[in-house]
Amino acid sequence: MEHQPSETERKPRADALRNRERLLEAAKAVFSAGGAEASLDAVAKRAGVGIGTLYRHFPTRESLFEAVYRREVQQLWELAEQLKGEGAPVDALRRWLRSNVEFVATKKGMSAALALAVHRSSDLHAYTLDRLTRAVGALLDRAVAAGEIRSDVSPEDLLRALVGMCYMHDQPGWQASVMRLVDVFVDGLRVVGKTKKTASGRRRPAKRK
Fold first, then answer.
1. What's the CA dihedral at 181, 187, 189, 195 to 10 degrees?
2. Which CATH number fits domain 66-193: 3.40.50.1000, 3.40.50.2300, 1.10.357.10, 3.40.50.150?
3. How many CB atoms sit inside 10 A of residue 27's CB?
4. Which helix (H) or strand (E) is 196 found in, with range?
5. Is the dihedral of CA 129, 131, 136, 140 positive or negative?
6. For range 145-169, the mean pLDDT
7. Residue 190 contacts residue 149 (beta carbons within 8 Å)
C-alpha cells in the first residue's frame, strides 16, 4: 500500500512559518542598517531564534537575500491588488508609485545584497519584472479606462521612469525630491482637462491652453 503523507508532512508547521517570517523581517532590518555583509548572527538574534534555525530555512546568505527580495516584491503586488478597489484610479496609481520610492528608501543598505540576488538568478529577475509589470499595469489600465490617464503609456514606461527617478538614491534629501517628481510625473500623464490632485490632497485645475 502506497504511503500517504500526513497533514504535518505536507504542510510546514505553524511555528516554522512564523520563524521564517520573523527571519525575513529581521533580515530586512539588519541588512538595511548594516549592508550586504551584516552578520547573520545578528539576523537570528533579532528574529529571536538560533543560528541553526536560520540555516535550516536559508542555507546560504544568497538564499536569504533572494527570499527577502521575493517577499518585498510580493508585498508590492499585494498593495496593487488592494489599491485596485480603493479610491480614484489615478490616486491608486500615484500611491503605488510612491510606495515603490519608500521601498527603495528602506533598502539603501540592502541594495548591494538585492542586486547580487537578482544578478545571480535569471528566474528571480524574470519573476520581479513580471510581478511588478502586471501590478502597475492593472492600476494603469484602470486609470486609462476611467479617462484619467493618457492611453499611450505602458507599464514598462512607468517602471523605467520610476527607476530613473530613484537613481540618485544615495544623495541627501533624495526621497523628498523623488516624491515630488512622482507627483509631477503623474500629473503630466493626466488627460487634459481633468482636475489634478497631488499627494498632499490639494487640487488644482489643469492649465488652459
1. 170
2. 1.10.357.10
3. 27
4. strand 196-197
5. positive
6. 92
7. yes
Interval 22-50: pLDDT, tens: 999 999 888 878 777 889 999 999 999 99
Lowest mean pLDDT: which of 54-68, 144-158, 167-181? 167-181
The CATH number for 1-59, chosen from 1.10.3300.10, 1.25.40.10, 3.20.20.10, 1.10.10.60, is 1.10.10.60
- Three-class SS of residue 206? coil
Q: Which cell is 117 given?
A: 540576488
The predicted structure's pLDDT at residue 109: 66
CB 192 within 8 Å of CB 206: yes
Composition of the chain by helix, strand, coil, percent to 5: 70, 5, 30
Query: What is this structure's pTM?
Result: 0.76
Residue with C-alpha cell 527571519?
Answer: 23
Q: CA 123, 126, 130, 136 torsion: positive or negative?
A: positive
Residue with cell 547573520: 40
